[in-house]
Write the structure tokens for this entry.
Amino acid sequence: MLNTLISVNEDLSSRFAVWYMGQLREILDLSVHLIHVTEPEHRGRPVATGWVQKTWEDSVLLQTRTWIDRMIRAEKNHSRILDEPEIVSGDREEILLHSMNISACGLFVEGMFHSFKPDGFLTRIRSNLYKKAPCPILMVKNKTGLSRGVVIACEDKNLEKALDTFFCIFEPSDIRPDILICRLDGPAKDADRISRRIERIDTAFAQRKKNHGDVKTIAGDVAAVLPFVQNCSLVVSPFPEKESFLENLLSLSPCPLLLGVQGPVNR
Amino acid sequence: MRILIALDQNEYSAHTLGRVARLAENTWADITLLGIFPGKSDSALPNEFTATMDRYQKDFLNCFDAAFSPYGPMEENNAFREVQPGIHERSPGPGKGPKDMAVRIRMGEPSGIILEEAGKIGCDLIVLGCDTRDDCTWCPGGNVPYRVAAEAGCSVLVMKKDTDARRILSCLDHEEISQASLEMISQMSTLFTADLDIVGLTKKNELKQSVQTKLGMLQSYYLSRRIQPWIELVELSDLEAFIAGENRWSLIAMWMGKQSVFRRIFFDSKVEKLISNSRSSVLLLK
């Protein structure tokens, strides 16, 4: 069973994440744990001290819990997530990283709105939380079913990492991902190189007695590749390097993203 | 629902018919095919133009299975007759279907005629075609699609030839969303066999809770109709730049009601630019 941790906030994107995990639960054996972290600065200035402050804090917590309960109820038919959410106060990154480490978390999940300007996305994937996460991260940018297919998107140099990320989560499933290799180093028409890549992919899947879908190799700019990652159920990718082609591409995709691990892995 | 389809002799007009026929089929709309010939109202109606209108009517009706068509069959020898100076009409005939289909030819300046006719019949949607290669102008007639879109009291669909894109951009005002506009976009998604991009507007990178609630409702509405909506947040100040990347979409649908934020941002010249330069079809909802 794969231990997963969903970080939820009082926003619509958290509903995307909860809903999407419900979809994944239909094809994967998952344990799902919900957590909401209230950061001290978000709680506002204390209104008083002692008993009054405690009562005020309790009422904020109660309000948050009510909102999260309502969200889970609203998504329950789809998500089948019935676990009680954990509500914790403190530094968000620290708490989430700690929680991932002590629970042997195999997948960290959170919702995020897809934006025209990629600043929010870049801030998030360049954060310490993402860099230090000990497991793959699923960013659910939209509510989409799994019927649209999974695409593994990578560059020539990080194909293995991309395949590892996919198998790390989806090995027990029957998903047949398409594979998109962007920006081949060297001449795009180098048939030998391409056939070697395809051989590596075939071998990786055959070893696990799994099948993959189409393999596409594309040499072009982000605009040329973007249509392949704009309309699918999930884009799987190695963790992108800062200011890389892949980082740019992923920031423009509205689809849920599964990112490989940057730091040491929970196994 | 009544749809007015404005037609001239050019290929872009013929192109609109197939798609509008599907819209009519889905909505069981009353239809007016309005042919506009750019001559003086006291001149004779050329046979060539009546033959074109015959072909349009046949093409439109051929989009339906005759047994289930909401419109009656086209009758042979049912010639156009002048009912008023410059206005020629074909009588409905005895084989009328459950829904009304009027076929009319008028002579004169196209945009004025389309607007007048739309007001007279009280239509909900005006559809007209154009070609991006000619900056979406009518030949002759000039900037007809823009003038109609800008001045019409009802929604206007300016339909262009197919793009490769299979996505519709939906810019709905979060304060005011009408059932009719939701339904219209839903129909367009079916017509274009397209996914839907829904814009969520942010101010200073903040997405208001009330907007999130609306976006959530929109998402549920479309998902329940088996349409995949993709939500994308756009800062209000970036909206113009965002829409300028219009090659992503086969159709841009925009709520342009009097209070609409899109109306404030996309004042006339920008709407004109959108209609003239964009490869996407444009639906202005009112």
User: Anything to note?
Assistant: Chain B has a mean pLDDT of 87.
